[in-house]
Design a protein that fits this description.
By secondary structure, the protein is α/β, with parallel strands linked by helices. It folds into 3 domains: 161 residues, Rossmann fold; 37 residues; 119 residues, Zinc Finger, Delta Prime, domain 3. It has 15 helices and 5 strands. Strands 2-3-4-1-5 form a 5-stranded parallel sheet, with helices on both faces.
Length: 329
């Protein structure tokens, strides 16, 4: 197991490999980046490499006792905290800390992976801080997070932080063609919606639910443009029903308006992302002025930026829907 299969993240991979080769591995890491960008995968590969009983190199040997146990998911020197709940409690961290002070059984290092570390309560983070201040030499703690700002400054300052960058459109498209076996047209479509995140691209490629979500979202945009007040209430019910998918819905809306704008400005159908909706887009060109499209895009962007800032969801969505339906003066 090594980093050869990792797409992008060259700087992160290079620095981790150098640390292993030069025997300068740190005791605490924060892998920060969007959900689905590959943080957990890189963390697991890194863990397997530092736990390998063979010395150095750019991968684990795959044959020593530690590697074989790791591959089978049974190496007791690898400890994972992962929860489906909203928080990681102080009790879960304390349980991990008890294990930290037990020396490794089979590996030169013990690795502790805390997934979605932003879920740690303040009490849990303060408890973890004690271990970060005086870690055993054999212990490595890796935290993955989509928002490292949610971690205490005292934890961030005691950790090496690696920011995972989004992949390029071409990297995502190539992955979909080579690993999911999509044709170029379908891969281009999914890559456009994936926002540079391969995990999201993979999920979308396998999701019939996303296709239905797109159909309903585009239908709502067209209904809102008709100017009937009752359509706002219908649209709000849709947003409430799909609250957990709000970011996907906003992305669909932005890309649909982008397609109308492209069609109006350039008249080039091949530039459309929603190419399968070409007829609908062309039929509605005269129903949206260029100025109105820009205003709608700004309105959606505002909601997208505010949605993670503890704004009132209902009020924010209602304001957006009313602005989208506003007639031009």
């Amino acid at each position: 197991m090594n980093f050869k299969g990792i797409i992008g993240q060259r700087e992160v991979v290079k620095r981790l490999e150098e640390q292993i080769k030069n025997k300068k591995v740190g005791h605490a890491y924060i892998f920060s980046g969007p959900k689905g960008i590959g943080k957990r995968t890189v963390a697991e590969i890194f863990a397997s490499m530092v736990m390998c009983q063979e010395d150095g190199g750019y991968g684990n040997c795959g044959v020593c006792h530690s590697c074989r146990l790791f591959k089978g998911g049974t190496n007791p020197d690898f400890y994972r905290i992962k929860t489906e709940k909203n928080t990681i409690s102080v009790e879960e961290i304390r349980s991990m800390q008890k294990d930290v002070y037990v020396k490794p059984l089979y590996s030169p290092k013990k690795v502790y992976l805390i997934e979605e570390a932003e879920k740690m309560t303040v009490q849990a983070q303060n408890s973890l801080l004690k271990t970060l201040e005086e870690p055993p030499l054999y212990a490595i703690i890796i935290m993955t997070t989509s928002n490292n700002e949610s971690l205490l400054e005292t934890i961030r300052s005691r950790s090496v932080i690696y920011n995972f960058k989004k992949n390029t459109y071409e990297e995502v498209k190539k992955y979909l063609i080579e690993n999911i076996n999509l044709d170029e047209k379908e891969a281009s479509f999914i890559a456009s919606y994936a926002d540079g995140v391969i995990g999201k691209a993979k999920e979308l490629s396998e999701s019939d639910e996303f296709k239905e979500l797109r159909e309903r979202t585009i239908g709502i945009l067209l209904k809102l443009n008709e100017g009937n007040l009752k359509d706002i209430f219908f649209a709000y019910d849709f947003f409430e029903e799909n609250k957990e998918k709000i970011q996907d819905i906003l992305d669909i809306m932005l890309i649909f308006y982008r397609d109308i704008l492209i069609a109006k400005k350039f008249g080039n159908e091949k530039m459309l992302i929603n190419l399968d909706k070409k007829d609908i887009i062309l039929e509605n060109l005269n129903n949206f002025s260029t100025e109105k499209i820009y205003k709608n895009i700004e309105t959606i962007d505002n909601l997208s930026n505010n949605i993670g800032k503890n704004v009132n969801y209902q009020l924010a969505v209602e304001v957006m829907l009313m602005k989208l339906q506003e007639e031009e003066l």
